[in-house]
Amino acid sequence: MVVADEMEADWERVKVVQAPGDEVRYGNQDTDGSRSTRHFFQPMRRVGAAARLMLETAAARHWRVAVSEVRAERHAVLHIPSGRKLDYGVLAKAAAKLPVPARDSLRLKSAEEFRYVGKGKQGLYDGRDIVAGTAQYGIDVRLKDMLYAVAARPPVLGGKVASYDPARHCEYRAW
Protein backbone atom coordinates (compact mmCIF):
# COMPACT_ATOMS: atom_id res chain seq x y z
CA MET A 1 0.00 0.00 0.00
CA VAL A 2 2.88 2.34 0.80
CA VAL A 3 4.50 1.73 -2.60
CA ALA A 4 1.16 2.12 -4.40
CA ASP A 5 0.40 5.36 -2.58
CA GLU A 6 3.79 6.90 -3.27
CA MET A 7 3.73 5.96 -6.96
CA GLU A 8 0.16 7.23 -7.49
CA ALA A 9 -1.23 3.80 -8.34
CA ASP A 10 -4.98 3.27 -8.32
CA TRP A 11 -5.58 0.78 -5.49
CA GLU A 12 -8.49 -0.78 -7.39
CA ARG A 13 -5.99 -1.81 -10.08
CA VAL A 14 -3.25 -3.06 -7.75
CA LYS A 15 -2.56 -6.79 -7.53
CA VAL A 16 -0.31 -7.89 -4.68
CA VAL A 17 1.85 -10.94 -5.40
CA GLN A 18 4.03 -12.46 -2.69
CA ALA A 19 7.69 -12.43 -3.72
CA PRO A 20 9.50 -15.75 -3.43
CA GLY A 21 11.78 -16.10 -0.42
CA ASP A 22 15.13 -15.22 -1.98
CA GLU A 23 17.45 -13.26 0.29
CA VAL A 24 20.21 -13.07 -2.32
CA ARG A 25 17.92 -11.40 -4.85
CA TYR A 26 15.59 -9.39 -2.58
CA GLY A 27 17.59 -8.89 0.60
CA ASN A 28 16.30 -9.58 4.08
CA GLN A 29 12.62 -10.50 3.91
CA ASP A 30 12.30 -11.10 7.63
CA THR A 31 8.94 -9.84 8.93
CA ASP A 32 8.83 -11.38 12.38
CA GLY A 33 7.61 -9.24 15.22
CA SER A 34 5.48 -7.09 12.88
CA ARG A 35 8.45 -4.91 12.08
CA SER A 36 8.30 -4.94 8.29
CA THR A 37 6.38 -1.68 7.92
CA ARG A 38 8.28 0.08 10.71
CA HIS A 39 11.65 -0.91 9.27
CA PHE A 40 10.81 -0.58 5.59
CA PHE A 41 8.34 2.32 5.45
CA GLN A 42 10.90 4.80 4.08
CA PRO A 43 12.53 2.29 1.67
CA MET A 44 9.05 1.36 0.35
CA ARG A 45 8.26 5.04 -0.13
CA ARG A 46 11.49 5.49 -2.08
CA VAL A 47 10.63 2.49 -4.27
CA GLY A 48 7.23 3.99 -5.04
CA ALA A 49 8.69 7.45 -5.70
CA ALA A 50 11.32 5.94 -8.01
CA ALA A 51 8.65 4.03 -9.95
CA ARG A 52 6.56 7.22 -10.23
CA LEU A 53 9.53 9.21 -11.53
CA MET A 54 10.42 6.47 -14.02
CA LEU A 55 6.83 6.46 -15.33
CA GLU A 56 6.83 10.25 -15.55
CA THR A 57 10.17 10.19 -17.37
CA ALA A 58 8.89 7.58 -19.84
CA ALA A 59 5.81 9.73 -20.56
CA ALA A 60 7.92 12.88 -20.97
CA ARG A 61 10.17 11.09 -23.45
CA HIS A 62 7.14 9.74 -25.33
CA TRP A 63 5.72 13.27 -25.69
CA ARG A 64 9.18 14.85 -26.09
CA VAL A 65 8.56 17.30 -23.24
CA ALA A 66 10.34 18.16 -20.02
CA VAL A 67 9.65 15.91 -17.02
CA SER A 68 8.64 19.07 -15.14
CA GLU A 69 5.59 19.30 -17.46
CA VAL A 70 4.16 15.93 -16.42
CA ARG A 71 2.60 14.57 -13.24
CA ALA A 72 1.63 11.06 -12.18
CA GLU A 73 -1.94 10.88 -10.98
CA ARG A 74 -4.16 7.85 -10.28
CA HIS A 75 -2.42 5.23 -12.41
CA ALA A 76 -1.61 7.56 -15.32
CA VAL A 77 0.77 10.34 -16.26
CA LEU A 78 -0.74 13.65 -17.26
CA HIS A 79 0.91 16.23 -19.53
CA ILE A 80 -0.15 19.33 -17.62
CA PRO A 81 -0.11 21.95 -20.48
CA SER A 82 -2.02 19.83 -23.02
CA GLY A 83 -4.11 17.56 -20.79
CA ARG A 84 -2.83 14.46 -22.60
CA LYS A 85 -2.76 11.34 -20.45
CA LEU A 86 -1.01 7.96 -20.67
CA ASP A 87 -1.95 4.97 -18.52
CA TYR A 88 0.77 3.24 -16.50
CA GLY A 89 0.19 0.07 -18.51
CA VAL A 90 1.18 1.89 -21.71
CA LEU A 91 4.30 3.29 -20.05
CA ALA A 92 5.44 0.26 -18.02
CA LYS A 93 7.83 -1.32 -20.56
CA ALA A 94 9.56 1.95 -21.41
CA ALA A 95 9.77 2.94 -17.72
CA ALA A 96 11.27 -0.45 -16.80
CA LYS A 97 14.15 0.15 -19.23
CA LEU A 98 15.16 3.40 -17.51
CA PRO A 99 17.83 3.48 -14.82
CA VAL A 100 16.53 3.64 -11.26
CA PRO A 101 16.72 7.28 -10.18
CA ALA A 102 19.23 8.34 -7.55
CA ARG A 103 17.82 8.64 -4.05
CA ASP A 104 18.45 12.40 -3.91
CA SER A 105 16.39 12.96 -7.07
CA LEU A 106 13.22 11.50 -5.57
CA ARG A 107 10.32 13.62 -4.34
CA LEU A 108 8.42 11.89 -1.57
CA LYS A 109 4.80 12.85 -1.02
CA SER A 110 3.81 14.81 2.05
CA ALA A 111 1.50 13.03 4.51
CA GLU A 112 -1.35 15.27 3.30
CA GLU A 113 -0.93 13.88 -0.24
CA PHE A 114 -1.39 10.23 0.80
CA ARG A 115 -4.49 8.56 -0.62
CA TYR A 116 -4.19 5.25 1.25
CA VAL A 117 -1.56 5.35 4.00
CA GLY A 118 -3.12 6.28 7.31
CA LYS A 119 -6.61 6.65 5.89
CA GLY A 120 -7.95 3.34 7.26
CA LYS A 121 -10.06 2.64 4.19
CA GLN A 122 -8.20 -0.21 2.51
CA GLY A 123 -7.86 -2.77 5.31
CA LEU A 124 -5.52 -5.73 5.07
CA TYR A 125 -4.99 -6.89 1.51
CA ASP A 126 -4.87 -10.51 2.63
CA GLY A 127 -7.30 -10.12 5.54
CA ARG A 128 -9.92 -12.40 3.96
CA ASP A 129 -7.32 -15.17 3.47
CA ILE A 130 -6.11 -14.79 7.06
CA VAL A 131 -9.65 -15.02 8.48
CA ALA A 132 -10.57 -17.94 6.19
CA GLY A 133 -7.40 -19.83 7.10
CA THR A 134 -6.16 -19.93 3.51
CA ALA A 135 -3.21 -17.52 3.93
CA GLN A 136 0.16 -19.20 3.40
CA TYR A 137 2.89 -18.88 6.01
CA GLY A 138 6.37 -20.34 6.27
CA ILE A 139 5.08 -23.02 8.61
CA ASP A 140 2.68 -24.15 5.85
CA VAL A 141 5.51 -25.23 3.52
CA ARG A 142 5.62 -28.97 2.91
CA LEU A 143 8.49 -30.54 0.99
CA LYS A 144 9.08 -34.16 -0.04
CA ASP A 145 10.81 -36.11 2.76
CA MET A 146 10.67 -33.05 4.99
CA LEU A 147 11.58 -33.60 8.62
CA TYR A 148 9.99 -31.76 11.54
CA ALA A 149 11.54 -30.80 14.82
CA VAL A 150 10.11 -29.71 18.12
CA ALA A 151 11.78 -28.19 21.14
CA ALA A 152 10.34 -30.29 23.98
CA ARG A 153 9.74 -28.55 27.27
CA PRO A 154 8.76 -29.85 30.70
CA PRO A 155 4.98 -30.23 30.99
CA VAL A 156 4.67 -27.64 33.78
CA LEU A 157 5.85 -24.04 33.99
CA GLY A 158 9.14 -23.90 35.87
CA GLY A 159 9.41 -27.69 35.84
CA LYS A 160 12.74 -29.50 36.08
CA VAL A 161 13.90 -32.35 33.89
CA ALA A 162 14.02 -35.46 36.10
CA SER A 163 16.07 -37.53 33.65
CA TYR A 164 17.30 -37.50 30.08
CA ASP A 165 18.25 -40.40 27.80
CA PRO A 166 19.73 -39.10 24.50
CA ALA A 167 19.36 -42.52 22.88
CA ARG A 168 15.65 -42.35 23.54
CA HIS A 169 14.99 -38.65 22.94
CA CYS A 170 17.31 -37.73 20.05
CA GLU A 171 16.02 -39.52 17.03
CA TYR A 172 14.51 -38.74 13.68
CA ARG A 173 10.94 -39.79 13.24
CA ALA A 174 8.85 -39.65 10.11
CA TRP A 175 5.51 -38.30 11.32
Question: What would your notes on this structure say?
Answer:
With 175 residues, the protein is mainly alpha-helical. Helix content is 33%, strand content 6%. It contains six helices and three strands; from the N terminus they run H-H-H-E-E-E-H-H-H. It has helices at 2-7, 23-26, 36-63, 88-96, 127-132, 166-169; strands spanning 70-72, 76-79, 85-87. A three-stranded antiparallel sheet has the order 1-2-3. The longest helix is centred in the N-terminal third of the chain and has 28 residues, at 36-63. The two termini are 40 Å apart.
Strand content: 5-15%
- Total strand segments: 3
Taken from the alpha-carbon principal axes, the silhouette is elongated
Low-pLDDT runs = none
Helix content: 25-40%
Estimate the mean pLDDT confidence: 85
**What's the arrangement of strands in the largest beta sheet?**
1-2-3
Decide which structural class fits the backbone: mainly alpha
Please identify the oligomeric state.
Answer: single chain
Biggest sheet layout: 3 strands, antiparallel
Termini Cα gap: 40 Å
CA-based gyration radius:
24 Å
Number of helical elements: 6
SSE series: HHHEEEHHH
